[in-house]
């Protein structure tokens, strides 16, 4: 048995804990070891926070940070996003999770400008080598490093057109009698 789900979220800070709780609830119900669940939930939080902060075209009228959220959403109803491709509109991003046997894969996709070319090829933490991490005083960039530390395999890429994709996976450990392992 396997589980997969996909959330289509607005690029708002409140969506980050929602995605994290959804993942934690799924993993708890399935019987994933709590330490693994925690690591993946922290990595997901960082990926979602990155999509919220950087995942839209900052130059559009709807997405400018200098305007209040109510003004940015004026004239849009809660269902206006249903006809758009997930993660394709400036005010949205998508989270997809797959739990299958021994592995969990999570993907966060946004519609922003994407990663600069040098960031796309960052190796995972296990293959770190000489790739420098941001200095401790840096205000940006530590979240991606944290994802690399918490996951087994990480990929940072860009979608054709616009948008970043952060995907990562981790080997799962199961509690005894776990739901997914019974099948």
> Could you give the count of β-strands?
5
> Structural class of the secondary structure composition?
alpha+beta
**Spatial strand sequence of the major β-sheet:** 1-2-3-5-4
Query: Helix tally?
Result: 6
Helix-strand topology string? EHHHEEHHEEH
The biggest beta sheet, please?
5 strands, antiparallel
Whole-number mean pLDDT: 78
Name the shape in a single word.
globular
What percentage of amino acids are in beta strands? 15-25%
Q: Oligomeric status of the shown chains?
A: single chain
Low-confidence stretches: 58-65, 75-84, 119-130
Rg computed from alpha carbons, rounded to a whole number of angstroms? 17 Å
**N-to-C span:** 6 Å
Proportion of helical residues: 25-40%
Give a short synopsis of this structure:
The protein has helices spanning 15-30, 34-54, 69-72, 117-120, 142-150, 179-182, and strands spanning 2-10, 92-100, 103-110, 153-158, 164-171.
Molecular structure report:
Strand 4 (153-158) and strand 5 form a beta hairpin. Helix 1 runs antiparallel to helix 2 and helix 2 (34-54) runs antiparallel to helix 5 (142-150). The protein is an alpha+beta fold. The longest helix is centred in the first third of the chain and has 21 residues, at 34-54. The protein has a 5-stranded antiparallel beta sheet with strand order 1-2-3-5-4, with helices on one face. The N and C termini lie close together (6 Å). It has 6 helices and 5 strands, in the order βαααββααββα.
Secondary structure topology:
Elements: E1 2-10, H1 15-30, H2 34-54, H3 69-72, E2 92-100, E3 103-110, H4 117-120, H5 142-150, E4 153-158, E5 164-171, H6 179-182
Antiparallel strand pairs: 1-2, 2-3, 3-5, 4-5
Helix pairs in contact: 1-2, 2-5
């Amino acid at each position: 048995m396997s589980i997969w789900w996909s959330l289509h979220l607005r690029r708002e800070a409140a969506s980050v804990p929602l995605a994290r709780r959804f993942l934690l609830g799924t993993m708890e119900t399935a019987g994933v070891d709590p330490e693994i669940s925690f690591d993946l939930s922290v990595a997901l939080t960082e990926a979602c926070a990155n999509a919220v902060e950087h995942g839209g075209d900052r130059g559009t009228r709807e997405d400018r940070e200098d305007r209040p959220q109510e003004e940015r959403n004026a004239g849009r109803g809660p269902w206006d996003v249903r006809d758009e491709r997930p993660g394709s509109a400036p005010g949205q991003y998508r989270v997809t999770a797959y739990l299958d046997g021994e592995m969990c894969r999570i993907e966060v996709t946004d519609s922003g400008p994407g990663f600069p070319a040098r960031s796309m090829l960052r190796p995972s933490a296990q293959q770190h080598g000489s790739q420098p991490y941001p200095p401790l005083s840096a205000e940006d960039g530590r979240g991606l490093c944290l994802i690399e530390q918490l996951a087994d395999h990480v990929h940072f890429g860009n979608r054709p057109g616009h948008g970043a994709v952060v995907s990562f996976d981790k080997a799962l450990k199961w509690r005894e009698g776990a739901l997914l392992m019974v099948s």
